Amino acid sequence: MRADKVVVIGQGYVGLPLAIRAVEAGMTVVGIDLDPVRVKRLSVGDSYVEDIAAERLGRALGTRRFQPSTDYADAAGFDVCVISVPTPLRDGTPDLSYVQRAGEAIAPLIRPGCTVILESTTYPGTTEELLRPLLEAGSGLQTPGDFHLGYSPERIDPGNSTWRLENTPKVVAGTDADALANVQRFYDRIVETTVPVGSTRVAELTKLLENTFRQVNIALINEMALFAHGLGVDVWEAIDAAATKPFGYLPFRPGPGVGGHCLPIDPCYLSWQVKRTLGRQFRFVDLASDINHAMPEHVVQRLVLGLNHRGRSIRGSRLIQVGLAYKKNTGDLRDSPAVEVAQRLCRLGAQVRVVEPYADAQHIPAGVSLVDLTEPEVRAADGVLVVTDHDELDYHLIERASTYVFDTRRRCTGDNVELL
Ligand SMILES: NC(=O)c1ccc[n+]([C@@H]2O[C@H](COP(=O)([O-])OP(=O)(O)OC[C@H]3O[C@@H](n4cnc5c(N)ncnc54)[C@H](O)[C@@H]3O)[C@@H](O)[C@H]2O)c1
């Protein structure tokens, strides 16, 4: 079956790039999102996802094969449907209500022979145990048999221009061999390499393994940085030296904590399932979460001490914080440790002036002001705190004009610079 009409449910960081890529691969795509503001912006070529430039969105719209819509009726007659809606945590428990609602809405439009693929990150078993029964109930059809069901985790890395959707290998799975063949055929038109695995559960676990691996290793290096500082050893130099080992080591670097929709959340899906199903505690995940969650407070304490050392109190200090996004070169503030740092500094009575070229002004937390990175701004500040190291910023200006820099990312050098 050729996937000529594709529906992508959820037009966010994951769904929009996939929709655009499918249009570029010659398919007709309906991008469904319940947020009317997002759909309106897409319809006029105004992209809110940094990796999709307005010109690229404009070209997709120009083919007349990309239709953003809030109306599920526009999905009728689809060959392939991809679900890429949020999977947040509510009080430490997976919230699959978005997946549920998307499944219920698309089920009546399922026809024999079509394929439904879940891309949202979730715990092993979701596709088979949660999505499948509600698709079957809503369509009156069976899978395997009448329609195909699969899972393919997304590996999108916002802001990464080297590893993009199309050249990052994509893990694909189906609930039976036919479903896998259909899922793989679809993604073979979207990406250069597909990696088939034997079950949807394996594919679901693959994503959680990747993110748990990152979360745990970041926590390890964060704790290493804390202790190395206490011992008076330069952890950054040790990391560079260790990274020369050609086998058995992967470099991770310390930072202000983890954020976004993936690292702070996905491993908790796994630990929640382990607890619920096996009655066991996933100690690595819990420990890593604890360490990473404590990093914003640690960053603030180090800054307070740095100012104190220079005879200044945090209360009333004029500070420039570089970055609010959770990762560089994006404007994504979701669960960003940089936002927590800014809020903590405000609560301590600092005047926080933030340089954040990517974020919408309306999403900036109360109490902080947005400024441009200029020499007079930096000279007027008591200190500069580098939290998110966007590539486009002029770090030499900071090194030159600031009397004190506390840098959590090692972007600056000089006698006035203190590293995390
Ligand atoms: N952002 C990333 O870097 C990333 C990477 C890999 C995987 N993921 C996973 O992909 C999934 C989606 O993440 P995202 O970052 O794209 O989220 P997002 O919040 O950017 O986008 C999700 C979109 O879905 C829409 N939506 C919610 N419910 C809907 C429904 N019932 N019908 C139609 N639209 C609906 C929302 O309005 C929103 O625009 C999550 O499970 C996430 O964990 C995200």
Question: What can you tell me about this protein's structure?
Answer:
The chain is α/β, with parallel strands linked by helices and 420 residues long. The chain folds into three domains: 5-197, 3-Layer(aba) Sandwich (Rossmann fold), CATH 3.40.50; 207-292, N-(1-d-carboxylethyl)-l-norvaline Dehydrogenase, domain 2 (Orthogonal Bundle); 294-419, 3-Layer(aba) Sandwich (Rossmann fold). It is built from 14 helices and 16 strands. The strands form three sheets. The protein has an eight-stranded mixed sheet with strand order 3-2-1-4-7-8-9-10, with helices on both faces. A six-stranded parallel sheet has the order 13-12-11-14-15-16. The longest helix has 32 residues, at 200-231. The protein is globular, with a radius of gyration of 23 Å. The termini are far apart. The site of nicotinamide-adenine-dinucleotide has 27 residues, from helix 4.
Give the tags:
420 residues, alpha/beta, Rossmann fold, N-(1-d-carboxylethyl)-l-norvaline Dehydrogenase, domain 2, eight-stranded mixed beta sheet, six-stranded parallel beta sheet, 14 helices, 14% strand, binds nicotinamide-adenine-dinucleotide
CATH fold annotation of the largest domain: Rossmann fold
Low confidence ranges: none
Report how far apart the termini are: 54 Å
Task: Report the major sheet.
Answer: 8 strands, mixed
Ordered list of secondary-structure elements with their pairings:
Elements: E1 5-9, H1 15-24, E2 28-32, H2 36-43, H3 54-62, E3 66-69, E4 80-83, E5 89-90, E6 93-94, H4 97-106, E7 115-118, H5 126-139, E8 148-151, E9 170-174, H6 177-188, E10 194-196, H7 200-231, H8 235-242, H9 266-278, H10 283-293, H11 295-309, E11 318-322, H12 337-347, E12 351-355, E13 369-370, H13 375-380, E14 383-386, H14 395-401, E15 405-407, E16 417-419
Parallel strand pairs: 1-2, 1-4, 2-3, 4-7, 7-8, 9-10, 11-12, 11-14, 12-13, 14-15, 15-16
Antiparallel strand pairs: 5-6, 8-9
Helix pairs in contact: 4-5, 7-9, 7-10, 11-12
The protein binds nicotinamide-adenine-dinucleotide (NAD).
Nicotinamide-adenine-dinucleotide (NAD) binds near residues 32, 119, 158 and 262.
